[in-house]
Amino acid sequence: MSLSRSAFPAGLLLALLGWAGATASAQAGFTSAYTDLDLAQCLVLEADDFSASWACPGYKGFPLRVQEGDLRFSLSYGFDPDADSPGFQTLPPFNSLGEKLEWRLSNASGRWFPIATIVRYHTADPETGKDKGQVLVVTQIAKGNSCHIAYIDALANTDANILARTAADKAGDFDCLQDEPEIIGAFSAY
Known about the structure:
By secondary structure, this protein is of the alpha+beta class. It is 16% helix and 39% strand. The protein has one domain. The protein has helices at residues 10-27, 81-84, 160-168; strands at 30-36, 43-47, 51-56, 64-69, 72-77, 95-106, 113-124, 131-140, 147-153, 182-184. Helix 3 (160-168) links the parallel strand 9 and strand 10 (182-184). The longest helix is centred in the N-terminal third of the chain and has 18 residues, at 10-27.
């Protein structure tokens, strides 16, 4: 038995074509992957009484360097992090890093590749030194142009993770030498 064209309802054909197109466009875009941020699993590169730096496992081997100095942390990315970033970027108060690193991936190049990260910084009260705030720091990853692009107060915004992902998905349009990181939403972390 063969099906003639008239045996296949036009509405069903259009619906199937629309579904196929929607599926293809849903596959293009952004997604997240997560890695642990555990310094015990990292290789110590340098350490003294005042600072330290580590090489840590990143997303599928993508290089990640963690640095600590003056009780503040900084992350940098890539095979030449000194050339790709403006230097040690951190938040003003004493801080520590959260346990997870969210990598925002884009498949614009035909494969999933990191374009930004989101990490939770725990900030300390300047008077007591105790944890006071939590800031989601969004960092653009781009050769020669990697830097913080947005800050979101994780305690003051119930949709902080969504705000951070939206900011991360704009990575690539930020000029690290000229643009200032954006503070998104309510902010009282420090």
